[in-house]
Amino acid sequence: ATVGGAYMAAKAGFPAVRNVGVLAAALVAFNPRFVVLSGSVTNDTLLAALCAWGVFLTVQTQRLGPSWSRSALFGTVAGLAGLTKVSGMFLLPLGGLALLVWAWQSKEWRRAFGHIALVGALALAIGGWWYLSNLVRYGDPGFVPLLTQQTGRRPQWPARLVVPEIRKFFGSYWSEANYCELRFGSLPVYAGLSLLGAVG
Predict the structure, then answer these.
(1) 183: Cβ–Cβ under 8 A, 6 or more apart, which residues?
(2) What predicted TM-score, i.e. pTM, was given to this entire model?
(3) Could you give the CA distance from residue 51 to residue 57 in angstroms, rounded to a whole number?
(4) What is the torsion angle, in degrees rounded to the nearest 10, for the CA atoms of residue 7, residue 13, residue 16 and residue 19?
(5) Quick one: CA torsion of 41, 136, 50, 76, rounded to 10 degrees?
(6) Which whole-number Å values give the CA distances from 123 to 27, 103, 199, in the listed order?
(7) Whole-angstrom distance, CA of residue 145 vs CA of residue 148
(8) CB contact set of 17 (below 8 Å; sequence gap of 6+)
(9) Per-residue pLDDT of the chain (200 residues; tens, 9 = 90+)
């Protein structure tokens, strides 16, 4: 589902670029970290699939304009993503931004705000109850993960840690994890792919 969503999102975003969908799908499907996560039981796999299709729907909305069926589907996907993991809620501002860009280009602000209301209502109905129940039961909606609450936040970020932590973040995206560390000896290849993505 994630690979298919990446394929469709890339094709929707760059319809004139030949094989862009295949390239995007390959970058996702052959990412070692993604392969490891997809072979384990975790909410990250569901979140990745929902976000891939959420990005596709966002691109379609920005390019073609909103439709009620697409907005309803996006609101459903965004609600499920927010219910899957807190970071899934970032789909909502992405979809809202796409609608605002479309409204700015077409000058149809009233229609855009109607679609934003539909998306928000559906997302809240599907995923909002979880955060509301957390607030009622525990006095906190649960936006900050429990692990962070237990271990505490770092009071400051010394400059000497910047480079090592960027390296760790980069490595964890491609292959490293506490329970599985893959060493392919091809970190320069991954570095090149990341640089191309940043430039793009």
Answers:
(1) 175
(2) 0.80
(3) 10
(4) -20
(5) 140
(6) 29, 21, 33
(7) 5
(8) none
(9) 999 999 999 999 999 999 999 999 998 998 878 888 888 888 999 999 999 999 999 999 988 999 999 999 999 999 999 999 988 999 999 999 999 999 999 999 999 999 999 999 999 999 989 889 888 888 877 776 655 555 566 667 677 777 777 777 777 777 665 555 555 556 677 778 778 877 87
94 neighbors 62 (Cβ within 8 angstroms): no
Tokens of 151: 């271990």
CB distance 118 to 67 below 8 Å: no
Both tokens of 33, joined, read 């970290």
Task: With beta carbons less than 8 A apart as the criterion, state whether 60 and 70 touch.
Answer: yes
| Cα–Cα nearest to 98, from 115, 123, 118, 77 | 115
What angle do helix axes 187-199 and 162-174 make, rounded to 10 degrees?
Answer: 100
Q: Which residues contact 184 (CB under 8 A, 6 or more apart)?
A: 32, 175
At 82, give phi and psi (nearest 5°). Answer: -65, -30
Beta carbons of 48 and 2 less than 8 angstroms apart = yes
Are 75 and 119 in contact by the 8 Å Cβ rule? The answer is yes
Tokens coding 178: 């506490």
